[in-house]
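Reading group handout, session on sequence-to-structure problems. Before we discuss, look at one worked example. The prompt was deliberately terse, the way you'd type it at a terminal:

> structure Scaffold protein Nfu/NifU N-terminal domain-containing protein

The input record follows.
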Amino acid sequence: MRPLSLSFRHFLRGQAVLTNRAGSIRCIRGVAMAGRLGPTTTVPSVLILNEKIITLQKRTMFIQTADTPNPESVKFMPGRPVLTSETSGDSADTTGFYVTRNDKADIALSPLAKSLFEIDGIKGVYLGPDFVTITKVAETGWSHIRTLVFSAIMDHYASGKPALTSTPEITDTTILDDDDEIVAMIKELLESRIRPAVQEDGGDIRYVGFNVDTGIVNVQLAGSCAGCPSSSVTLKNGVENMLMHYIPEVTGVEAIAEEDEEDSEPIEASEDEAKAKSYEERLRAAGIPFSD
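And the output record:
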């Protein structure tokens, strides 16, 4: 068979129809559009061929994906800024926005998150500086969600709306007037050293509190880190070691899990460590000391 041309003759319900140079028809499933298009029309769509995602150009826009250590999370990179200084404050390059399906008030702040949560099976949405991390429920397969996420992201950029309409002026790592020196140092290390390394895998880490009596720092994991099987290894071998190294008053770090993460089953230590490798490499590059 001769190579397929890139001319789209027309769309059928649920199918995009391609013609080859000889005129015979080949159908690629996965596009839910209807209507007729000219042979030179730019097609704003996403196709699935042999179960593999193929992104098509929409006004020079391409969306790429990357796996994360969490099998339930995938990082979507639209090739354009997601959060800007207008929507996430001066620290837009590091501060993200994480929301779950139950956070109705927070969802209302993000037109993009609102559109994504219209897709069944999505559990959490994390907006980073230039990416979106989607976390799904275990019962839902990626083959169904990926195409819908592509469509929602492209529709969002076509609308011209911001990813966030507003955000609190005070974030988890904002140093407040009543923060003592220890808390200020913890927040600074999380914001400047740890958070950028973790965000590269589509995750995030939030400061929750510090117990001066026990020396325990409480954090919350977000994005691909939330519910990730390797998060415990990363937390102990990376985050905890760094804070204890620079702040002697810190004796440990504990993660506060979301309610629906309590029942997640642990995995074997060897598999856990293997999935944590990418996190560890990024944290090492950030200068975080690891124990042997």
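Points for discussion. First: The CA atoms of residues 110 and 164 lie 4 Å apart. Second: DSSP finds eight helices and 14 strands in the chain.
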